[in-house]
Amino acid sequence: HHLPVLFACGDIRRCPCDGPFNIILCNGLIGGPSLDTDAGGTAVLGEAKRLLSPAGCMLAANRFHAGRRSAVERFTRQAVAAGWDVEGSWQALVLHNSSPPDLTISG
Question: What is the number of alpha carbons within 13 Å of residue 36 lying toward its C-beta?
Fold first, then answer.
């Protein structure tokens, strides 16, 4: 079996495409120089929430040197405060939207 896979590349703060996506891969960005502010974190979390399917997740790989750890940990606290479930270490985060999916059936 072949599963359909769509890869889209864009600025995670304001992505020019629509979801839903099951996975967002954010490799080397969280805590980096362009996303190490609270405003940057808010923008990332807002776009991820907009783009992810209800059961989707964002994977954030952060292989920065230890000097970036505090910025990634600040983003992690920001995500938890915004209602995300966060697992993993500061170098390999998995974020799930903690809002339960809407499973109502209309018809």
Answer: 13
